[in-house]
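Aim 2, interim progress. The first record below pairs a target sequence with its structure tokens.
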Amino acid sequence: MNQHKMKITQYNSKYAEQTVDMWRDSKEQAIGQKEIHSFENHVYFLDHILPEQFQIDLALIDEKVVGVIAYNEREISQLYIHVDYQGIGIGQKLLDKVKAQSSGRLTLYTFEVNENAQRFYEKHGFEVIGRGHENEEKLPDIQYEWIFQ
């Protein structure tokens, strides 16, 4: 894959269906259960609910959505990478951008079943600060924190 072709851009709703498709596939693979919300509700969430508190960026390769991250200066709400494009540095590039504009401290939640995500975050300087929070999926999760050193 040509890394230099990847670009990070602010979310635009013209990418809504691609983004939600990718997000659902990635999440399903990560946690082993079907998405509980309908596709339409998911698109609505992405276009209307998420942007109220978070900036959303996409990673694109030739106009194909290969990653999404939703964040503000204190928190990462969502980070999903296309199942065919994992492990090649896309998540790291998105994370580096978010770290650079953060308050110097970021928190996030990930599912306990998602061991790949845990390895990824721990490799990039996040530490566990809590376990077992409420979520719609009814799965135990882990809270992570990154502090700028």
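The second target in this work package is listed in the same format:
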Amino acid sequence: MVLDYDQDDVAFWEEVRDWLQTNAPRERRPEAGPEMRAFLLAWQPRQYDGGWAGLAWPKEPGGQGLSLIWHEEYAAAKAPPIGCLFVAMNHGGPTLIAWGTDAQKAFHLPKILKGESVWCQGFSEPGAGSDLASISSRAVIDGDDLVVSGQKIWTSYGHVADYQELLVRTSRGEKKHDGLTWVICPMDAPGIEVRTITTISGSQHFCEIFYDNVRIPMANVVG
């Protein structure tokens, strides 16, 4: 009920509802592949230009620090699911806000908010699943680069991503979680192979990723 909100919330609610009714795409979002990427990278800049991108992000990196009313109205307006922008908006971007360098924030956060880049997540592995303490993909320091070898699996939208939040093992300590490094991996780096996985429903949004001595600048290490 509207009475559950204060007047500022009510005004914001009405503004959100009016904007979404006018601007939300009416056509169905493509389910997967380059078509979904193109659709969402056209919709995201429209949200950015309207002042509605990254509402839950702090104001300093370009967010609004606002409430969940947007998400309620977004669903009510049947606006397109966030799909391949999920990792960038809800995980990669917020991680950079918390732990990224000034240079990493300045380069990546505007691109995420404006819908200029797609991210995927490189965490799960065939022998570890989601037990991140057991991952075995390795990275060794060679000059100004990390050299990565290994494999990830169940990487959603890896075939349409520009960057990956990649978790690798750079050392081993007494605790299994020691020695893990979070790094920004450009998906066009030489040595990366992406294979799509067809699910029982016929969709192909999952991928397995192979890394063969992939060189990633040390400047891409986060935290």
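The longest helix spans residues 7-23. This observation will shape the mutagenesis plan for the next reporting period.
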